[in-house]
Specification:
The protein is an alpha/beta fold. It contains 13 helices and 11 strands. 36% of the residues lie in helices and 19% in strands. Helix 8 (225-240) runs parallel beside helix 10. The radius of gyration is 23 Å and the shape is globular. The two termini are 35 Å apart.
């Protein structure tokens, strides 16, 4: 109805706004483009007033046709770097494929592609066929009929340590290629792993997916305010571009590990001497049942009511906590699905829910 059309126009305005546009840009396709009060002094004012920006980017229609056989598109976002977006995206893709789904994972973090490492695909290369680029298939033992296909700029670098030093237009061009030239085939889910922030890559992916639809975004944060202050911006970005927020994941929500797993070091407070072996030996002898207990510690201070309170304030779902877990870290480093690696790891239950 009218409300849906209004939302689409609002999303279009934000997604189409030039990167150097003034705050409050109405978008180059708006009837007031180049004429609105927000346009005063904008370097794009003359071009917008000419009407040149009103033409629909033909790539939007091409992407819609190319992705017509993909049922659901989900973005993994966060305003902050280093909070675990790629970890969540990869384990989400693993989890969905393990349930028998056909899954695609698109890594649009052009400057810091982590997905090849986290899926154990570092030595793989992308090949071209008559139908376009062929995404890399992940080996998923025990996944039944499930499948996971992956595309990342990391597959195209001659050396994984090479820096990608690109300006916005070149990044946007590669994202367009990922959506128009990759032969994804028929998928149940396409997961898009994004860089931190609300910049060119985010606007591009929303613009190009406008025609085929975005089911929503999973927002990843850690408990401390230095992360949440940027994640709040990301939630507002989603609201302004009318991307539904599927929920907030609180990552690194405390450190969890079994006492007897060798993850802890015991020291004598008087001398600073490592007494781990003696302590564990005493526990094995006198109270072996304690070694099976999980210990928890808050590594990052939770600010206020934490991510759960933030989600409530913004009226978006809170999906739960994902603890710091040595097994999850090892699974990510070695390209493994955590549930297949360890059914008892502290993070396994959270990822399986």
């Amino acid at each position: 109805g009218k409300e849906a059309k209004s939302q689409a126009r609002a999303m279009s305005a934000v997604a189409d706004a030039p990167a150097n546009a003034n705050a409050g840009c109405v978008g180059p396709k708006n009837e007031q483009a180049g004429k609105a009060s927000a346009c005063a002094g904008c370097p794009n004012q003359k071009a917008c007033a000419s009407g040149a920006g009103k033409a629909e980017d033909p790539a939007v229609g091409v992407v819609a046709d190319k992705l017509a056989n993909i049922k659901h598109k989900i973005l993994v976002l966060s305003g902050k770097g280093g909070v675990g977006k790629s970890t969540v995206a990869c384990q989400l893709a693993f989890s969905l494929a393990a349930r028998g789904n056909q899954v695609g994972l698109l890594d649009v973090d052009i400057c810091g592609p982590s997905v090849p490492r986290m899926l154990g695909l570092m030595s793989r290369e992308v090949h071209q066929s008559g139908s376009g680029w062929t995404p890399i298939q992940v080996d998923l033992p025990g996944a039944g009929d499930g499948e996971c296909l992956v595309m990342s700029v990391g597959f195209m670098l001659p050396n994984p340590d090479d820096a990608v030093i690109w300006r916005g237009p070149r990044k946007n061009g590669l994202i367009k290629q990922f959506l128009t030239d990759v032969d994804w085939g028929s998928l149940d889910y396409l997961i898009v792993d994004t860089p931190p922030g609300t910049s060119d890559e985010h606007l591009s992916i929303i613009q190009y997916l406008r025609g085929s639809g975005i089911d929503g975004a999973v927002i990843v944060t850690t408990p401390q305010e230095v992360a949440m202050q940027d994640v709040r911006k990301e939630i507002n970005f989603c609201k302004k571009t009318h991307v539904p927020v599927l929920g907030v994941v609180e990552n690194m929500a405390g450190y969890h590990a079994p006492l007897g797993a060798g993850a802890f070091t015991f020291t004598d407070p008087a001398t600073g001497k490592d007494v781990t072996e003696q302590t564990l030996a005493t526990l094995r002898r006198k109270a072996p049942e304690l070694l099976a207990l999980n210990l928890s510690a808050q590594v990052f201070p939770r600010f206020g009511e934490g991510p759960k309170g933030m989600a409530k304030t913004f009226d978006v779902p809170y999906l739960g906590e994902l603890p710091l877990d040595a097994e999850l870290t090892a699974a990510s480093e070695e390209g493994q699905f955590l549930s297949a690696r360890s059914s008892t790891a502290p993070a396994t239950a959270a990822l399986s829910s």
